[in-house]
Recover the amino acids of this structure.
């Protein structure tokens, strides 16, 4: 125990300094504004239409859309770059050759001196292309505009940008124009960023209604670019009529999986369909890919009001202006119904077709770009303390440390202070029916101790009632400011916490349920009832009190992400289980993401947000978001035992800001490591103020297998109530003969066909691993050669069907090895003698199931023999071991199998000793 505490103390000291440095860098950055790259050269406004041209739609792609867009932008918030054609030409001359063939560029350049008939003939040789004597100059200006903007963003001169250019580019290929496009602006920008700014990973998102086949062709063999396109397809009947526009085309070779086509096969797709695609498909993959630059092919021909699917001036201008507002930090406007994706309802499902029109009236249609964040803090709340245990985790210093961190980082000065007040007894009756706590103000110490013993995990002093009143009253004031538009969002640094408090009794350090009372107060003062409120509870403990108060209420959606451990973690109740979905009309409005097994971290919480929280919350479409923001799931917390980072909390906050027009209030709940809660809440406040969330650790490990199981269980229970959870896909691998289109050669073979891998192993631990019957097989979704070592192509997630031979039952387990773990630095260089896989356990002489330590290279038996390797790992703190049975590597601290390049040398040595041949090199 002494050693454990010492390790925690050393770890806490180190992480505190690391987090302090990272946070200071975040807030010390010079504020940057959006650059709206609006090219005002005379060339960009040329109609470029030949008098006798018969090409379709030319009247609909005139420069008028640029001018109309400019009118929709409030330019006082925008830095407008006036680009000189000479500057752009200089940049474009280099940038064009990053992607385009030189002979093609020269041919386009020659169009400046061509006759009208020659231009017409050349245009007719392409699909849907028109050319003009000044087309080349305009195209060069468009490319140069984008490249100048890339320079400013990549050098951190600007945070982001919006390039208003024409002609478009995403259909253009390396040596041919196509679909109004001459040069592929976005593809050129991606290559330019890679060659000029050493960008290693680029994400290209293409939401134009037409598939950007030009981008796909250029990057389909490049693993450094992830291309995601969502487009109208209609089984290939919609332009460009290519089979490779379908979802089965995923890239080739090392870039397999780097092309993602979401092809709509019906018309009428709405906001909810696109948002569902982003939440459940694009964002999870993008977070795993961790791009260094995001480029958007922002076509607005899928916009509402554009009946032809292309080039409606008003919808294009409004859509582009909305994007600029978002890039400037403005809140997303509330969605208009329907808020669920289209598609047939599942058989036997129950879905509420609530009319949202009336309650939508209370929300402004376009939130202002100018944002203000409210901050509630009153040091009088520190007067509530434990008189009998000065080491109690719910210390008064919790809020003072958080506030001090906010001051240190300059966040307090950027916020609008909101005074706390005492909530009245009448206001407390909105959710509570007990009055014992009021009498505590005049009780003697002995009576206070006796009163506290009547409740579950409660301590009381004479100032407890007042402190709890201040916490509630401060949140009331914050809610009022948010709903009246005086602030856009807010953060409440308050105590005591509240989410365990029941209607009739305090519980778990909580007296009054602050978030529940704030929700009821918001509904009471709202002009249009009922106000729909989302309460998102990410405290590591389940908010039993909040659940019970709203379990029969469909106007409040309660979503809790908490440690459950099959019901043994506090508050130790089956009410926290995922099958508790609410009762009566509240059925479906209580969502419990209950973690069991594993030390959950950023990946797990983000996965829950992508697949459960945000889909349900978006469909619910709240008018206010309240966050029960406990930070006891943070790394280093003494009670939670989880690993969520401050950066992780920042990303969760950022996602919630897309709801309710940005009306979000974070209310402090638990969290008992003073450093962790201070850093984490400061990161959240920074995001509320409009700062971008910082980058997460790279590479982001995959979600824990127990987390995946928990998320799937939630989806199973709630799919009958929420259409957004009924997203199913069936894996289909394209035949090689399908991977070509007219004029395109077939892609090279990606390698071996998909295989089913069955490995016999005696894993050192298997608690929490999903069980299947012994007949089960798991087919791999990636084509790569897997030898008996379990080794394959780098970066792929490999699922193995594993039979544990030392278990009495014939049970199968699905094992998904982690691609990274924080303990890989424990792996030491191989000894000169190499690895002898036939050595017995050096303690007991057994050769039944042996492992080798990758730190000291001792050979010891596994837990199903005499557990000597398990004992060795605990005593020597050597976490990583390699199995002589199947050559898999296990980390005792992560409780997971690991598959990483660092392990290659040891695995290869063991493979040579066991089979006499090397395994394929890491690639």
């Amino acid at each position: 125990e002494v050693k454990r505490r010492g390790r925690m103390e050393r770890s806490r000291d180190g992480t505190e300094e690391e987090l302090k440095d990272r946070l200071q860098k975040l807030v010390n950055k010079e504020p940057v504004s959006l650059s709206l790259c609006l090219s005002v050269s005379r060339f960009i406004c040329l109609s470029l239409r030949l008098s006798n041209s018969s090409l379709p739609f030319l009247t609909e792609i005139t420069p008028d859309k640029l001018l109309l867009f400019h009118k929709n932008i409030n330019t006082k918030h925008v830095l407008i770059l006036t680009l000189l054609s000479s500057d752009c030409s200089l940049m474009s001359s280099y940038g064009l050759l990053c992607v385009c063939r030189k002979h093609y560029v020269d041919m386009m350049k020659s169009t400046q001196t061509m006759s009208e008939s020659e231009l017409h003939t050349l245009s007719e040789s392409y699909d849907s292309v028109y050319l003009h004597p000044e087309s080349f100059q305009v195209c060069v200006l468009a490319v140069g505009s984008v490249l100048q903007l890339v320079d400013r963003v990549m050098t951190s001169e600007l945070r982001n940008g919006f390039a208003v250019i024409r002609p478009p580019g995403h259909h253009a290929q390396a040596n041919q124009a196509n679909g109004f496009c001459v040069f592929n602006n976005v593809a050129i920008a991606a290559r330019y960023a890679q060659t000029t700014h050493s960008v290693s990973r680029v994400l290209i998102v293409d939401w134009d209604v037409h598939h950007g086949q030009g981008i796909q062709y250029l990057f389909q063999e490049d693993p450094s670019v992830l291309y995601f396109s969502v487009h109208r397809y209609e089984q290939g009947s919609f332009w460009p009529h290519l089979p490779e526009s379908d979802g089965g085309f995923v890239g080739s070779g090392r870039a397999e999986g780097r092309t993602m086509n979401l092809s709509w096969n019906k018309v009428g797709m709405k906001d909810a369909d696109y948002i569902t695609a982003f939440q459940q498909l694009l964002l999870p993959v993008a977070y795993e890919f961790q791009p260094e630059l995001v480029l958007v092919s922002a076509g607005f021909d899928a916009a509402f009001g554009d009946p032809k699917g292309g080039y409606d001036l008003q919808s294009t201008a409004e859509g582009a202006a909305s994007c600029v507002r978002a890039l400037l930090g403005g809140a997303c406007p509330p969605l208009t119904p329907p808020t669920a994706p289209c598609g047939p309802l599942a058989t036997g499902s129950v879905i509420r077709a609530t009319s949202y029109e009336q309650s939508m009236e209370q929300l402004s249609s376009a939130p202002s770009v100018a944002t203000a964040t409210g901050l509630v803090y009153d040091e009088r709340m520190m007067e509530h303390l434990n008189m009998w245990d000065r080491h109690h985790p719910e210390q008064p210093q919790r809020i003072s440390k958080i506030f001090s961190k906010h001051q240190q980082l300059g966040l307090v000065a950027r916020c609008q202070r909101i005074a706390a007040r005492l909530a009245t007894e009448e206001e407390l009756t909105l959710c509570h029916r007990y009055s014992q706590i009021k009498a505590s103000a005049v009780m003697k110490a002995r009576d206070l101790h006796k009163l506290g013993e009547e409740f579950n995990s409660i301590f009381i002093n004479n100032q407890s009632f007042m402190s709890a009143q201040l916490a509630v009253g401060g949140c009331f004031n914050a809610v009022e400011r948010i709903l009246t538009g005086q602030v856009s969002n807010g953060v409440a640094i308050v105590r005591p916490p509240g989410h365990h408090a029941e209607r009739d009794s305090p519980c778990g350090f909580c007296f009054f349920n602050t978030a529940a009372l704030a929700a009821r107060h918001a509904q009471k003062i709202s002009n249009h009832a009922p106000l729909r409120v989302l309460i998102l509870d990410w405290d590591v403990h389940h908010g039993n009190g909040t659940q019970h108060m709203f379990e029969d209420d469909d106007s409040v959606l309660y979503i809790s992400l908490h440690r459950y451990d099959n019901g043994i973690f506090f508050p130790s109740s089956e009410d926290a289980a995922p099958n508790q979905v609410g009762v009566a009309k509240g059925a479906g409005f209580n969502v419990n993401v209950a973690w069991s097994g594993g030390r959950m971290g950023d990946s797990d919480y983000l996965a829950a947000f992508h697949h459960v929280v945000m889909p349900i919350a978006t469909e619910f479409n709240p008018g206010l978001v309240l966050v029960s923001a406990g930070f006891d799931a943070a790394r280093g917390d003494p009670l939670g035992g989880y690993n969520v980072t401050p950066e992780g909390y920042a990303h969760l906050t950022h996602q919630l800001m897309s709801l309710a027009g940005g009306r979000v209030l974070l209310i402090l709940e638990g969290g008992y490591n003073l450093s962790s809660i201070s850093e984490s809440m400061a990161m959240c406040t920074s995001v509320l103020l409009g700062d971008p969330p910082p980058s997460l650790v790279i590479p982001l490990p995959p979600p824990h297998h127990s987390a995946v199981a928990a998320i799937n269980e939630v989806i199973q229970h709630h799919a009958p109530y929420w259409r957004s959870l009924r997203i199913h896909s069936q894996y289909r691998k394209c035949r090689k003969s399908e991977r070509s289109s007219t004029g395109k050669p077939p892609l090279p073979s990606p390698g071996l066909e998909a295989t089913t891998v069955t490995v016999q192993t005696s894993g050192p631990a298997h608690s929490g691993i999903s069980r299947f019957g012994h007949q089960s097989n798991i087919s791999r979704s990636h084509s790569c050669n897997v030898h008996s070592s379990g080794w394959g192509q780098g970066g792929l997630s490999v699922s193995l069907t594993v039979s544990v031979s030392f278990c009495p039952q014939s049970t199968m387990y699905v094992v998904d090895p982690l691609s990274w773990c924080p303990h890989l630095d424990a792996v030491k260089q191989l000894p000169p003698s190499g690895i002898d896989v036939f050595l017995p356990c050096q303690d007991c002489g057994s050769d039944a199931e042996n492992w080798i330590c990758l730190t000291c290279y001792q050979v010891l038996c596994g837990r199903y023999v005499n557990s000597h390797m398990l004992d060795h790992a605990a005593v020597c703190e050597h976490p990583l071991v390699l199995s002589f049975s199947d050559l898999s590597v296990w980390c005792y601290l992560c409780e997971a199998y690991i598959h990483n390049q660092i392990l290659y040398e040891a695995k290869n040595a063991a493979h040579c000793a066991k089979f006499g041949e090397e395994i394929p090199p890491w690639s």
